[in-house]
Amino acid sequence: MALIEARTLKGFRDYLPETMMPRERLMETARRVYRSYGFAPIDTPALEYEEILTGKGGEESDKQLYRFEDHGGRKVALRFDLTVPLARFVAQYHNELGLPFKRYHIGPVWRGENTQRGRYREFVQCDFDTIGVETITADIESVLVVHDLFRALGFEKFQIRVNNRKLLNGLLESLDLAERSAAILRVLDKLPKAGEAKVREELTGALALDSARADEVIRIASIQGSNAAILAELKPLARGEKGEQGLAELSELLRCVEAAGVPAERVQLDPSIARGLDYYTGTILETFLGDLPAIGSVCSGGRYDNLTQLYTKERMPGIGASLGLDRLLAAMEELGMLEKRRTPVGVMLAFFDAQHLSDYLRLAARLREAGIGVEFYPEPKKLGAQLKYADRRGFRHALILGSDEWKNGRCQLKDLASGTSRELALEDGRGALSPELLAALSA
Amino acid sequence: MALIEARTLKGFRDYLPETMMPRERLMETARRVYRSYGFAPIDTPALEYEEILTGKGGEESDKQLYRFEDHGGRKVALRFDLTVPLARFVAQYHNELGLPFKRYHIGPVWRGENTQRGRYREFVQCDFDTIGVETITADIESVLVVHDLFRALGFEKFQIRVNNRKLLNGLLESLDLAERSAAILRVLDKLPKAGEAKVREELTGALALDSARADEVIRIASIQGSNAAILAELKPLARGEKGEQGLAELSELLRCVEAAGVPAERVQLDPSIARGLDYYTGTILETFLGDLPAIGSVCSGGRYDNLTQLYTKERMPGIGASLGLDRLLAAMEELGMLEKRRTPVGVMLAFFDAQHLSDYLRLAARLREAGIGVEFYPEPKKLGAQLKYADRRGFRHALILGSDEWKNGRCQLKDLASGTSRELALEDGRGALSPELLAALSA
């Protein structure tokens, strides 16, 4: 029989233990932080009716959609984000859920993208959103969640850059560009990557701005300085109700975030942050790593006031953000922040004397009961082979007992990094595992 | 614009917070138990080349496969279990992974099944497997893992029923039925559900056994009693090398599992356990809930010696089991084992005085720093509305501060179950949160 080639699909990847362990840690951290603010988990199917998903993320995501017919001839597709399923979910259950509704959702999404530049066609998103809240409190809290998340993930140097769509629209209104604002913001969103010249070209070309106004748009987006200085510089430019409201919201957000304990340098007002998607209506945010700004935003989001409008007539405003888990994982790998281990436990119990199989098993069970994870080597091979395995996997300790040790109630504990061994008592005088052993293995 | 109906696909379901929270707890428990034995996590794509998945689970799973062509015209399909992707994975990376290789994998799988009897087309499997180990140690450990898992999930009454394919094949060999053994075992697997009459009919009908041998097969499968009694009764029947080896393996497994500390009544030798899939070659196991045996096995598995043979010439034996997470969740719901809460935190901080927004935010941040999750109500609505929300969500406490409390450094703590309130100091004398407050909120 011919062998089938064992391979993954183009654009997809496997996660081996050394990458999957930190990936699980990231997800656990995200869950812990989201929960601490009262966000509750939900899950939705990978497959949805095609009509639920098409026309939501623009032409690009329609093209990238994995779609087909199921066994019942229904047109179905794999979700391309967690936001459209959220809109469907909230429209479907809002009476049951009650508002405000705060949820997080961690799960894979699929996009048939070009696979250049390390982009994959399946990746995990970690979203949190607050539905049904008009007040700025939810915007403030979203920034606080992102801040706590990156702190909990072990980052010191990162910056959450915030802006406000009302302010941007107000500024464009002052320039008499209100009608072209969505298109202009889509172009402006490319400023950090494409650069000024390219953006000016698009503004004056496809969007037909005169060069004075194109320059002014770029000048405003390029304003830098302290939050207070930027607010002051924007104040005279943001005339009209919308612009003033946006400025007031930003100002309140920055004040409260600092009052809640976030160091000022971690939250920066940035007039160039525009976000590409049309549905944002207020606060918008992106998050950059101080040591690796070039990979772009690793956590982005904002306020949207009309997300559920395709499914229900009830107006449900929302705000939230999405952590790009796999992009962040790649960044942490590049920054050397991931531990290179391939085992989730610290201790390997060697299998030295086949006569004592059930004794080894009992000892391993007692260690686990004491909260110490332990892998028991499954075959009574030569000790050298077992220690080589332990080394390769990255265990901290090997616990070794031969027939002498079983007789004397002692064990050898080998520190695999230093190569040193010491002998310890297995039990204290009263039949419990000895405190020295437990302390050494917990270290 | 016409609204799109917000609905899930037939055969699929959403998880709302009250169901998703216990579901996440189940997954966390499974991860913790698997890790404590040294199993490390992996992940593989939801989509695989169709040729990887077809012809692995039999005709039935081929029919249920979700398959289509991707954007590059490749024939792809959604995985229907986590075992076939494991075989592909191990064949692809075995040099990198090293043996023995112990992995767990938690993820959704898809089957276009008939949706009768509460079966869904997407469900989560929680698998653990040990690859590359011939010795019985891995079999013993698999039973121990399942035992620890159900204990950690909160079950007292459950039973792991074990059997051995070598023993079954040896018994059939003694009856001169070796050549039909795979087909007979598939029929025997239906015994608990279909009953004796139906199984006899299939054995004597489609499989053409004479009625004496059909009766003997059913009689053997129906032997009951203590493990020792069953072993004794099977001993004279299991003639030949294979049967004796199977019996010796079972006997060693039962001895060691008990020696490792598992109560005898939790692991039962059951000659009727056959497992439907052809690929098992040794130990097989199923797990039943004492209070709800009718839902069938909630965790099943066994030893397979040739799983990777379609992808590689290297022989890689394995043993493992799969927890049917969503079926177990449904069982726990039926048994009243799930707490009916819709919030992951115990405390709601009411928003009473809009002037103090940043004070509330700061207090919530300090509580979170102290390890106490807290949801801040996002709008300064009437207290009654906020308390109603807190009640409905299932918070334990509401923490209430108005302008008087902020002035005096006190707070009102309302126990939402009893309806009683008490006043507490916010801080101790030295600017830290008061120990009474922290103790009350942790309760």
Task: Explain what this protein looks like in three dimensions.
Two copies of one chain form a homodimer. Chain A contains 17 helices and 16 strands. The model of chain A has no long low-confidence stretch (mean pLDDT 94). The radius of gyration of chain A is 28 Å and the shape is elongated. With 443 residues, chain A is α+β, with helices and mostly antiparallel strands. Chain A folds into two domains: 17-334, BirA Bifunctional Protein, domain 2; 347-442, Anticodon-binding domain (Rossmann fold, 3-Layer(aba) Sandwich), CATH 3.40.50.800. In chain A, helix 6 packs antiparallel against helix 12 (241-259). An eight-stranded mixed sheet of chain A has the order 1-5-6-11-10-9-7-8. A five-stranded mixed sheet of chain A has the order 13-12-14-15-16.
Structural class of chain A: alpha+beta
The fourth-level CATH homologous superfamily of the largest domain in chain A is Bira Bifunctional Protein, Domain 2
- Report low-confidence residues of chain A grouped into runs of 5 or more: none
Q: Most extensive chain contact?
A: A-B, 107 and 107 residues
The first-level CATH class name of the largest domain in chain A: Alpha Beta
